[in-house]
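Consider the following assembly input.
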Amino acid sequence: MQVLEAICFFIAAIFAVGGAIGVVAIRNPFFSVLSLVMHLLALAALFLLLHAQFLAASQIIVYAGAVMVLYVFVAAYVGGVDEPMRPSGPLLTLAPFFAGALFIELVIAALGTGLSQINTEGAEVSPGFGGPEQFGELLLKRFLIPFETASYLLLIAAVGAVVLARRRRGLEHLDEGEDAMQPAPEAAPSSAAESGEPVVAPGAAV
Amino acid sequence: MDVSWYIVLSALIFCIGLIGVLTRRNPLVVLLSLELLLNAGNLSLIAFSRMWGNADGQIFALIVMVVAACEVVIGLGLIVAMYRNSLPIDVDEMSELRG
């Protein structure tokens, strides 16, 4: 039983880390999304190993199902353009070192902690641990206010997304007015630059 | 499996996501990397919840999933709005608000 659990853990961990690396390393955003789906499914397996059955189910339904469909739609809508990495820059070279240092620090902090149970399998749990029954009881009794706040947050996010993504029909005439006004100030510097170029060129030739 | 294995795995996933947030330029991939960060946090929350035999951490993880869903909705709405206004889909180009 112990061995089986370890095998399951390592397979799921390999898929989770591989999916995470795929998200970061693959150039095409569409395949990054698919890689994240693999990562989320592996994480759901890890949740199951940790006796969080309800969370594993909601991870698959909410994340790997609904959220990823949204991502795939937007990736297809915007177009899966292959983007180049930053050609060179301090951030691109420094970021892996920074992340590696953070990883070492986190591992030292986690393994060197004084938590007495971190090197055990965890406390004994009842069979219903992490099931929907326990979730419902906790959400509606002890965590009622966070639960309601989360529902308001979802409502606000839905309204915000509609406002962000709709076509602004009511403001179209305003946008057209701005568009009509914008070329005039932009035209002036460009014409100045054009008129400035012939002046510079003879100077450079001399 | 010891709980510490899960914590180390969560730290590893967090760091990979951090590299993605820092180095990628496509806002869609930045959002995906943010998902990695949030999921790493979720994994450690659930591992600690298992360690104490207390389901409060799982409620936290559920709330984090709700927040992540909201973040995705708003972020993808912003990307669609950027695309509609034919702005470049590149976080480096979106620097109008930089001080």
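Helices of chain A lie at 2-25, 29-49, 53-78, 90-111, 132-142, 144-165, 172-181, 183-205. Ask yourself how this observation constrains the way the partners meet.
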